[in-house]
Amino acid sequence: LLAGCNEATTATRAELKVSGPTMGTHYAVKVVGDYPGGEPQLQHDVEQILQRIDHQLSTYKPDSELSRFNQHKATTPVTISQDLADVLIEGLRVGKMTGGAMDITVGPLVNLWGFGPDKRPTKIPSDAEIAAARAKTGLDKLHVEIGSETATVRKDIPDLYVDLSTLGEGFAADKIADLLDGRGIKNYMVEIGGEVMAKGVNPKGECWRIGINKPTDDPAGLNQELEEIAHLCGKVGLATSGNYRNFYEKGGKKYGHTINPITGYPAEQDILSATIIAPDCTTADGYATSFMALGSEKARELKKRVPEIEYFIIYTDSVGNYKTEHSEGFTQYLANKGR
Ligand code: ADP
Ligand code: MG
Fold it and tell me: Which one, of 96, 67, 74, lies nearest residue 155 by Cα?
């Protein structure tokens, strides 16, 4: 895999770069060499995909395809786009692999805790409120069917509410990668809100370098101090989840945006940040959130069952020490190998 990186050409090649706001975050796409129509066309094509996906998956847009399904308070099937069906199927697949730690039906709890479109609660939700929201969740209550012409989705209970926030950025990165592959682009890097899909090499002919931030409490995201740099060659997706950007404090306690679907409370785990490398970014995105929800011990177990992922985690050990750890297969992505 790394051989390609070592055959670096010394000449720096031209790079096209486009970026902008999207889905409440920021995107950046870099293409080495040419793109038909140049930067303006690249920007146009990328933004068209981003807008389409936002219109399919957003829970912040009341008229998105997903919001319309969430508002459909009935158990009859709803016809959906192939894209929405694909993300739902991947969400269900990863959810099942994680024993429900990653749960795309966790929306009612996300909203109750103030990490969705609803505003922050003024007080910590009561056990009764949590139980009521939990009763509206469950991966087994969501069914997707792909027919020859159309796809449909249906819920067993009218109140089921799907939240694809954890997969949306990764999925959008994958779709932009599909666009670039379709245009015959061999070397590119797509980044959406920190989730990355990279292929080939950068303009210097080296692997793409992606920084893994130190997880310092920093809602504004201004702290860019790096813990590590991942070197991506070949075609891989990388996603990082952490609770250090999106959290709030109440009564001296910190509540982060990863919910443990089993307890109904924000997951209080030892992992501060989880970076996952997988063949595609949707998968990486899903497992990164899973790691946050599971904690390091169960995450290590999960990795044994899921050979397609490699991880790099930052966590606090039982005596409060700051630690980093990565799977054996992640070593190939680190510059200083063998650590
Ligand atoms: P980030 O990359 O910003 O850390 P994630 O990709 O981990 O974010 O997604 C976090 C979002 O996913 C939350 O804001 C919430 O909407 C949703 N979410 C929270 N807990 C879960 C869970 N256990 N399973 C699936 N989605 C979740
Ligand atoms: Mg995620």
Answer: 74
Three-state DSSP class for residue 138: coil
> Of 172, 174, 207, 173, which Cα lies nearest the Cα of 32?
207
pTM of the model: 0.92
The tokens of 332 are what?
């190939």
8-state DSSP, 93: H
Residue labelled with tokens 């009521």 = 132
**CA 64 from centre of chain:** 19
Q: Yes or no: say if 233 and 204 are a contact pair by the CB < 8 Å rule.
A: no
Which residue's entry shows tokens 């290590």?
Answer: 300
For 266-297, how does the pLDDT look when each residue is reduced to its tens digit (9 = 90+)? 998 899 999 999 999 999 999 999 999 999 99
Please check whether residue 159 is in contact with residue 138, taking contact to mean a CB–CB distance below 8 angstroms.
no
Protein residue closest via CA to atom 13 of ligand 1:
257
CA terminus-to-terminus distance, the chain = 19
Q: 268 C-alpha to center of ligand 2: Å?
A: 17
How far apart CA 278 and CA 196 sit, in angstroms, is 10
Average pLDDT over residues 74-81: 97
Instruction: Looking at the CA of residue 167, tell me the nearest atom of ligand 1.
Output: 6
pLDDT digits (tens, 9 = 90+) for 187-239: 999 999 999 999 999 999 999 999 999 987 666 666 678 999 999 989 999 99
Specify the residue with its C-alpha closest to ligand 1, atom 4: 241
Q: Which residues, listed in sequence order, are joined to residue 313 by a DSSP beta bridge? A: 274, 325
Q: Are 31 and 188 in contact (CB under 8 A)?
A: yes
Flag whether pLDDT at 166 surpasses 80: yes
67 band by pLDDT with thresholds 50, 70 and 90: very high
- Token duo for residue 159: 């109140």
Task: Report residue 245 as tokens.
Answer: 């950007």
